[in-house]
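Onboarding guide, step 5: your first structure request.
Type a short instruction followed by the sequence, for example:

Predict the 3D structure of this protein.
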Amino acid sequence: MLGITLEETRVFQEAIEQGREKEAADGIFRLLKKRFGQEVSEEMRARISGLPLATLRRLTEDLLDFNSFADLQPWLDAQ
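The system replies with structure tokens like these:
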């Protein structure tokens, strides 16, 4: 019809990006709970979930250097 596929549409690409961001954030929540034994507060969940994918990926790596759960707050404040 228009010569483009569904996968080439902006809406489709945005949906894929949002799915990747959600999956990355969910992984971060699981890693933090496993590493430090505590749940992420709703406020921090909202902050983390609002980060772009590249920043979420950086957090996934950086949290391996955290010494405690308290290191998350300054990291988020620096973003």
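Each response can be followed by summary notes, for example: Residues 9-77 form one domain.
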